[in-house]
Amino acid sequence: MCGIIGIVGRSAVNSRLYDGLTLLQHRGQDAAGIATCDKDRLSSRKDIGLVRDVFSEQDMLLLKGNMGVAHCRYPTAGSSDAVEAQPFYVNSPYGIVFAHNGNLTNSAELQNELFEADLRHINTTSDSEVLLNIFAHELRGRVSRNLLNEHDIFGSVSCVHKRCRGGYAAIGMIVGHGLFAFRDPLGIRPLVIGFRETESGKEYAVASETVALTGLGFSILRDVGAGEAVYITIDGKLHSAQCAQAPCLSPCIFEFVYLARPDSIIDDISVYKSRLRMGEKLAGKINRLLPDHDIDVVIPIPDTSRTSALELAFHLGVKYREGFIKNRYIGRTFIMPGQEMREKSVRQKLSPIHLEFSGKTVLLVDDSIVRGTTSGQIVQMARDAGAAKVYLASAAPPVRYPNVYGIDMPAAEELIANNRSVEQIQEIIGCDWLVYQDIEDLREAVSFGNRSVSNFEASCFTGEYATGDIGTDYLEELASRRSDDAKKLADLAGDT
């Protein structure tokens, strides 16, 4: 998963792109990049690291121009080398800068097509570069010299939709012309557009989440629709068109469970309210399964589960307490590369308040349980702090299947719930009782916020892939490239 933002402004956009990336830092901690356009001159800076570490004051001064694109990355595909950092660039036609969030499921096939049809060489292992070159190839065949218009953009995106499969949201900048953005025909990955009135005229911005726009003073215009493209000229004119033949909005439900910030709104659904309803639904299940429960206190595993845990405690009629103090200088463990780093970071990240555990039956609440190793460590921390019993509740259903649309769940054997019963998972984690959200309740908790959204991409829970093109061979090949072991081997090879 990644965070993307683009701005067409009336004044310099460098500092706002930086601030926007900071607001999207939760979506990617591996690398960051910004590219800006000053008339026909392009400037860029990208590298491995957090946003605050990649850009110096001098870097920011060199990023001149009123239009720009920025990206923060977690490497769900490709390696973690600096060369993989985005935005990417191709010089023909015009010069295009490109930032992408998602994953293409037919990337290898497309790469072969690009070489055979257009002699385009892909320099990285990232499918984002493939997507950029597909778009550039289509655009090159439609325009000549400086006669570019919105119809050329939309026609090119239509061809991208026909050729590319997977989940993708992209923002691109055409040097000297304008900024374009598009979303896959299923709208799996989020994308939203906003505007701001200034004395010099209207400014536009496009980003992965509303929080990146509202934090910069932009008003939310709307979500970019499934299959839709928008084009904002350098002088601030907005154009939009539906570019897919059969769009069907199916947003990723895991965005609402974990990925997105609670203060964001995706497809007119409040992430915060969705998580409240997840807690309410989970409380109902606990009351059905354990009507005479002995839970003394509900404690969230910070931070994403806090909203669900608060509502769960209310509906159970049980005390809610903060039992873990979080070290704010440790990143999100789910999106850290490598199991060894994730395990090490848990005890650095969380410290228990012993008074909240001592002698009590504690219900720990997590947003989801993916690999399970960190859950086992946290359960043990609760026992070490003196808990008499440790129950564990997940606000999401069991994660049993790999995600192929831009979330780092590549290998089935790394998922604790794959081919295991709840009882087996409970034994491995070491808790006294384990309860998961039901998939029907999760769907209801999210869709309640916008009844017009009836489909969700929920393959990591159901094994039903929205694009309909995922088989065993693809999953095995994906695991061979993106599992923790595969990434570790790639890193070792890069060091030699």
Brief overview:
The chain is α+β, with helices and mostly antiparallel strands. The chain has helices spanning 14-23, 51-54, 57-62, 107-118, 127-140, 150-163, 210-214, 254-259, 271-289, 306-316, 339-349, 373-384, 422-429, 439-447, 459-462, 472-482, 484-495; strands spanning 2-8, 31-38, 41-48, 67-73, 88-90, 96-104, 166-174, 178-183, 192-198, 201-207, 219-223, 228-233, 238-242, 265-266, 269-270, 297-300, 319-320, 324-326, 350-352, 361-366, 389-394, 433-436. The longest helix is centred in the middle third of the chain and has 19 residues, at 271-289.
Radius of gyration: 23 Å
Number of separate strands: 22
- Average predicted confidence as pLDDT: 91
Oligomer: single chain
The structure class reads: alpha+beta
What is the percent of helical residues?
25-40%
Shape: globular
- Point out poorly predicted stretches: none
Note the total helix count: 17
How many strands, what sense, and barrel or not for the largest sheet?
7 strands, antiparallel
Strand content: 15-25%
Terminal residue distance: 28 Å
Description:
The chain has 496 residues and is an alpha+beta fold. It is built from 17 helices and 22 strands. It has a 7-stranded antiparallel beta sheet with strand order 3-2-4-1-10-9-11. Strand 21 (389-394), helix 13 and strand 22 form a beta-alpha-beta unit. Helix 9 crosses helix 10 (306-316), helix 9 packs antiparallel against helix 14 and helix 16 crosses helix 17 (484-495). The mean pLDDT is 91.
